[in-house]
Amino acid sequence: MLDIKEEELKKILPSDGPSIDEVKKYLEKYNDEYIVIKCGGSVLVDQNLFNIFIKDITTLNKLGFIPIIVHGGGKRISKKLNELGIKSEFIKGLRITGKETIEVVEQVLIEFNQEIVEALKKQSCNSETINSKNNNIITVIKENEELEFVGTPTKIDKTIIDKIINDKKVPIIAPLGLDNNNQTYNINADTAAGSIAKKIEARRLIIMSDVEGVLDNDKKLISEINSSSIKNLIDNETITGGMIPKINNCLDVASNGVKGVVIIDGRKNHSLLFELLSDKGSGTLIRQ
Prior knowledge:
Elements: H1 6-12, H2 20-27, E1 34-39, H3 47-62, E2 66-71, H4 74-83, E3 90-91, E4 94-95, H5 99-122, E5 127-130, E6 138-142, E7 151-156, H6 158-166, E8 170-173, E9 176-178, E10 184-186, H7 189-199, E11 204-209, E12 224-225, H8 227-235, H9 243-254, E13 260-265, H10 271-277, E14 283-286
Parallel strand pairs: 1-2, 1-11, 2-8, 5-8, 11-13, 12-14
Antiparallel strand pairs: 3-4, 6-7, 9-10, 13-14
């Protein structure tokens, strides 16, 4: 980690973010460790939230962190399919991706991948695309016949990530992969981010979404949970529906070499910086 002087920190940090005293404490904590950030939901469609996200990634980069971005794009994909008159159908939250749909999914995600790179460039933050056409790192097998071109990651190529990071760039990863016949597959972005975090043994996997984190029955944020408390929360129906696979995926990641997985609310100002660089954090931390 860089030895950053207080004057320099004042220039780097946003005035409405964590305090300089807090930030100083946390700079050492993530020294030379990977942080995988999965962004989805409103951050990807609300221009103001997207701009804050881009600035926060730039801030982390200037502070010497190693952020690795995995982005979704579900809302954009649905919008594009709608325009083309292709119906979106889902099974347990996963998009059925036929021959026609996968071409649209790939096009939308690669365009968006490039947009993120361009937005970071404008903030003087160098980054590089990773997608099915450029630097592909994810090898997949078909999840099941029903979902068609939806893939489950079987292998992650860490050497490409390392090369980009050694060049002092931020990797921007689209949730796409190729099978052994070079056929493109759509991957659930949480699954893609989890597989990458496990492979590189990231210090943290941060999932930015449109929920505050895990809430108790009084709708209060639970700041930390582990495997036994997760089981209780599912049994007593505090965690229900689509949140169950999300949490189980997080737990799997936290049980396989990643020190902690955090679900944070991307709709909140600088939630990323508050999670990594402040005492109170900003969401629910999931440990083994």
